From TrEMBL:
A GO term, aspect molecular function: oxidoreductase activity, acting on the CH-OH group of donors, NAD or NADP as acceptor
Active site per UniProt: 93 (proton donor), 166 (proton acceptor)
The organism's taxonomic lineage, starting at the top: Bacteria, Bacillati, Bacillota, Bacilli, Lactobacillales
Residues annotated for a divalent metal cation binding in this entry: 237-238, 261
Assembly, per entry: Homodimer.
NCBIfam families linked: malolactic, PRK13529.1
Highest taxon, organism lineage: Bacteria
Pfam family, one: Malic_M
Species of origin: Liquorilactobacillus satsumensis DSM 16230 = JCM 12392
Sequence ranges assigned to domain Malic enzyme N-terminal in this UniProt record: 70-252
Domain Malic enzyme NAD-binding: 262-518
Cofactor(s) needed by this chain: Mg(2+); Mn(2+); NAD(+)
Sites where the protein binds (S)-malate: 406, 450
Protein name per its UniProtKB record: Malolactic enzyme
Co-factor remark: Divalent metal cations. Prefers magnesium or manganese.
Amino acid sequence: MMEYTPEQLLHNPFLNKGTAFTHAERDQYGLNGILPPAVQTLEQQAKQAYAQYQRKATALEKRIFLMEIFNENHVLFYKLFSQHVYEFMPIVYDPTIADTIENYSALFTNPQNATYLSIDEPEHIEEALKQSADGRDIRLIVVTDGEGILGIGDWGTQGVDIAVGKLMVYTAAAGIDPSQVLPVVLDAGTNNQELLKDDLYLGVRHERIYGEQYHHFVDQFVDTAEKLFPDLYLHFEDFGRSNAATILNRYKEKVTVFNDDIQGTGIIVLAGILGALNISHEKIADQVYMSFGAGTAGAGIASRICEEFVQQGMSPEEAKKHFYLVDKQGLLFDDMDDLTPEQKPFARKRSEFANADELTSLEAAVKAVHPTILVGTSTVPGTFTESIVKEMASATARPIIFPLSNPTKLAEAKAEDLIRWTDGQALVATGIPAEPVEYKGVSYEIGQANNALVYPGLGLGTIAATARLLTDGMISAAAHSLGGIVDPAQPGAAVLPPVSKLSEFSQTVAFATAKEAVAEKLNRTEIKDVKKAIDAVKWEPEYSPLADDVKVVKRGE
Ligand SMILES: NC(=O)c1ccc[n+]([C@@H]2O[C@H](COP(=O)([O-])OP(=O)(O)OC[C@H]3O[C@@H](n4cnc5c(N)ncnc54)[C@H](O)[C@@H]3O)[C@@H](O)[C@H]2O)c1
Ligand SMILES: O=C(O)C[C@H](O)C(=O)O
Ligand SMILES: [Mn+2]
């Protein structure tokens, strides 16, 4: 039984309906006279809020306004979000979320039901998770340690906003029940000197801790979360390059974990490449892949694409020969002593090139290799230059070029330039939303290769299937499920389905994922009908009667 006063009820975003509390509810819960007299519908509330939203001058003001709604009333927030998915995605999520992360402490008004865990006080982990869950049945956690936020680096505790934002997209896109989620930040310190010097900084004020103490802290969090919430799907976001893959590998065979930057990005890029090949009528086996920036995302994507070559019949040794990674050092060679474990399988031999020692830039590497696919996850803006792109286009009819670094200010190229420089031949997807490019009478739709197009459906499918693990098979099924939505024969067709259809195809992704989980016998409960299992966990932003265990105690009673 949960007890509230009428006043507390109005400030509980999971229960509050504001002016939509009916007369009967106002009588029952003591709300008469502490709300304006008129009773509104959800539609009226949404219309009024949207009108106010439109009056906000900047993207940041719009986001702050929407967060105020979220803090007060989840149903209203998600009703609005679902009515305006395309318009709100760049406001609630990337790129505007980057501004709120950089200014989180200064802008702070409300913890938004997040859990803040400090490496200095691991003894509070259990209590903090219990208190923020507040008796709710948590099925999904998005956790970050803030070290590698998008491409903007280390933001310590302020990174919690990426966990909050990713969860909002889960609900808006796939219908994950917002009362079953928890955003968590693991604050292990920060190396961001600006934050350490900032009086307003709300995080732990010391350098970031690595190594044994850090991993012990992560272990304690995972163990406690798994104990408290046995049906948990645990999503890791924006960990640093030295920890992200290590953490995923540590847990992926034991519990249901997902790393969005490694696996989510791998799925969306594979889907984008399959979409591009559908347009160009080329085979994957003929592609030569180059990654610019071979960190968490870059190496994760390469590994997913390489798996696809293998799945389509190539031997792993042969498949690897199609891959070239370029990072700060230039083209990565196997004699380098600073390669990450994830880069090593793709490092090349110097003997393959007459001028190996000169391949220290992207330009030199592109000239030497002539990739057919170029994916940017480098965090370095403007690095896909006109001369590099033209060099690539000189050797392949339909170059596949995905500048994926986020947010907008970090993208390796603009879609519009890529289309112009290649005379409309490039098959482009970007990390952030891009307007269609008008060029020589054709409107080129630009796909958004952002993991947000897949992680909501993947999560919904995995949760609905009660899957014990998230496997490569499920990941591959999710990637393949995005095909067939775009008409590849349309001039200027996008390589990925449009964000405006996000809610629809999230169901497609969920179905493919859940079906594979059941086929692999990973479900913890019996599932006869996958579609029904998904529908059963789906949440819609509609008001319903408050649960029987919600008890409102009026003052003086
Ligand atoms: N579109 C998406 O869905 C998506 C998903 C994940 C990451 N990303 C973006 O990809 C970028 C990288 O993210 P990450 O998590 O992999 O970060 P990361 O820090 O793990 O990797 C970045 C890599 O780029 C390399 N790099 C830095 N400067 C370079 C330079 N001058 N030349 C070549 N390489 C250089 C780094 O050494 C590192 O290996 C970010 O901007 C992020 O927003 C996009
Ligand atoms: O957050 C995003 O927009 C995608 C991705 O996870 C990233 O880190 O850039
Ligand atoms: Mn990310």
